[in-house]
Amino acid sequence: MMPARAETWIVVRPVIVVAVLSASLFAGALPASAQVKLTFDKHPAIDFGNAFTASVRVKSQNDWRDFPSEAGSDQKNVFDPYRERIAVEGTIAGRVLYHVEREFHDTSSPWKNVYLETRVLHGVHLQGGQFNMPFGLDQTTSLMNQDFNYHSLAGAFLAPGRGLGVMAYGDFFKKNLLAYEAGVFRQDGDNTRSAQLQDVHVAPTFAGRIVVKPFSKWQPLYFVRSMETGFAFTDGELPAGLYNLKGQTIPGDGFVQKAYVNGRRQRLGAELQWRPGPVGVQAEAIRVRDTRFGQGIEDEDLPNLVERAWYVSGTWLVTGEHKKDTITPARPFLNGGYGAVEFGARLERLSTGNGPALNPAVYGPRSPDVFPTADLVWTTGVNWYVNKFFELSLNVIREDRTLPRTATLSSGPVWSRTFRIEFGL
To answer: Which of 182, 356, 359, 385 could pair covalently with 340 via S-S, beta carbons 3.0-4.6 A apart?
Structure first.
């Protein structure tokens, strides 16, 4: 086990780096006569001219949940303070952007995005620290800008999530016709690392992503100018052990069989996003392959373990606002209107395993085949953007699970509901 003092150092190191670099650059760039300016648009901010700026962001998401009662699952709380975050971001000397974000609800891993970034030359920006690895459209979209109350199964369990590393990104043409992201990270992202893997040395993981807007410059085709498609990959070394990716139901109960893996973990992803006016369409597919070298009962190589997930979703702002990451009502509630109202639906599936659906007792963590399991989820929801600070969301979710007959969790259709109050400053 890693000593507690060492674990603490690993956690706070990105924050110390940001603080030291920020202080040194700020001290050198701040003139004695700099005028301090306080502003408040959507975020409170302080401005020292070109020397230093800082704005504070607050994110709060509180859920009321109605999950089914299942004999094999833990009791779930009705109320869940899902996100309680504060972030400080800004610029230093007009050239370096910094971001420090902390979660107050998750005490096991409180520091989230902590990084510095700057422009190196035209079309090339450099970012370093802890942030989302460039893989997965849904995962790399902030939960405050999500169309639904939860990340998709693909984004939550197969996309890597945040990692400590360095990344270059930029675009080669105007209007983001071709954008790229490429980086190297200390290990696989925090979405996919088990508690045991935290203390295991993992070789660097490489990740890359290309996003193309093929019609962004086509004036006659305004309807499709917002369409973009992307492809991404990761490739990293995987230590020997029970480190295959997990999968959970909507209430949070695991259903994927544990299996020994060793060698490499490779991901491939494809994504599509299209936002013509008040309508939004989004789709993504992810495939993850874990090799299993020398993991058989007699140290023989086993077939690769493959997990797949996909989703397709659609939204419609019936009040007419243009669909984008952050929705601001054209007519806020109690200020000349009723806010913005959006309806949405998402169909998704996560599956794993490569064997026939036989008696689960014949499958073990070192078996050549892994028992096939899957979760097909249909989510329908309505979002009410009261004003630029408050949002209310109701999701009704139907799961259709394919699980072993002996599984303690319920198979077949399972219904759940979540209601969220969200505040963003």
So the answer is: 385
Contact 159, 167 (CB under 8 A): no
Contact 254, 247 (CB under 8 A): yes
Taking a C-beta distance cutoff of 8 angstroms, is the pair 357, 382 a contact?
no
DSSP letter (8 states) at residue 93: T
Give 349-404 pLDDT, tens digit per residue.
Answer: 999 987 676 666 677 889 888 888 899 999 999 999 999 899 999 999 999 988 87
Tokens describing residue 120: 């190196």
Residue 209 and residue 129: Cα distance in Å, rounded? 18
* Residues 87/56, Cβ–Cβ less than 8 Å: yes
Of 403, 371, 407, residue with least CA distance to 259: 371
> How far is residue 288's CA from residue 117's CA, in Å, rounded to a whole number?
29
Whole-angstrom distance, CA of residue 274 vs CA of residue 279: 8
Domains of the chain with bracketed CATH: 4-424 (2.40.160.10)
Give this prediction's pTM: 0.86
Round to whole Å and give the CA distance between 220 and 223.
8
How far is Cα of residue 425 from the mean position of the Cα atoms in its chain?
20
The pLDDT of residue 124 is: 92
Compute φ and ψ for 236, nearest 5 degrees: -150, 160
391's tokens: 């949002």
Start-to-end C-alpha separation, the chain: 40
